[in-house]
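Students often ask why inverse folding is considered easier than folding. One informal answer: many sequences map to the same fold, so there is more than one right answer. In these notes we will look at a single instance of the problem. The structure comes first.
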C-alpha cells in the first residue's frame, strides 16, 4: 500500500480580519495605540456600509508526511499604508502578543515569531519546527492585538482607514 500527500498539504486555514474601532480620539503629535474591537464599519469601493467582524484566530494545517514535515513560517506584511476614502494615508503597525497555542499534536508546537508585528516589512508572525504535522491554532483576545498609529501621522478626523495584509506561508527548517 502506498500513501500519497494531499495536493496542498501545507495551507493557511484561517487568518483574522482586524478592526480597531470607530470614533477614536486623536491628538496631533501623540502616538496612538488601539486594541482590537469585535466589529465595526467595513469600507469598500461601493459604499461605506457593512459590518466587519474581527477575527481572533490564526490557523495552519500541515498534513505533510513526517518525512516531509520541514516546519513552516507564517509571514505577514501590509500591502500598502493605511488609507481612507479621500486618499489620506499613514504607516502604522499591528502587534500580536500572548497567543493561546493549540496543537493537534504535541510535537514541536507553534510559537509566535520573535517579531510578531505586521508593518511594511515581511515579518515572521508564527512558526513551527520541523518533524511534526497537524493543525496549529493561535487564538487572541482583543487586548492581544494592537494597532499603533505613529505620532507623525496626519490623520483626517472623519476618515475610516484600512489596509490589506499579505499573509505568506512557507516551508522552513
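Output (designed amino acids):
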Amino acid at each position: 500500500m502506498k500513501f500519497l500527500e494531499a495536493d496542498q498539504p501545507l495551507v493557511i486555514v484561517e487568518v483574522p480580519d482586524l478592526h480597531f474601532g470607530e470614533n477614536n480620539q486623536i491628538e496631533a503629535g501623540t502616538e496612538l495605540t488601539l486594541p482590537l474591537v469585535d466589529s465595526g464599519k467595513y469600507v469598500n469601493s461601493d459604499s461605506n456600509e457593512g459590518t466587519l467582524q474581527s477575527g481572533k484566530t490564526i490557523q495552519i494545517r500541515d498534513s505533510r508526511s513526517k518525512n516531509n514535515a520541514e516546519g513552516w513560517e507564517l509571514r505577514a506584511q501590509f500591502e500598502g499604508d493605511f488609507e481612507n476614502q479621500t486618499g489620506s494615508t499613514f504607516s502604522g503597525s499591528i502587534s500580536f502578543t500572548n497567543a493561546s497555542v493549540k496543537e493537534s499534536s504535541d510535537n514541536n508546537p507553534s510559537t509566535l515569531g520573535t517579531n510578531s508585528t505586521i508593518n511594511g516589512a515581511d515579518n515572521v508572525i508564527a512558526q513551527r519546527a520541523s518533524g511534526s504535522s497537524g493543525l496549529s491554532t493561535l487564538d487572541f483576545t482583543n487586548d492581544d492585538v494592537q494597532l499603533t498609529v505613529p505620532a507623525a501621522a496626519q490623520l483626517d478626523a472623519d476618515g475610516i482607514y484600512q489596509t490589506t495584509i499579505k499573509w505568506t506561508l512557507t516551508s522552513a527548517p
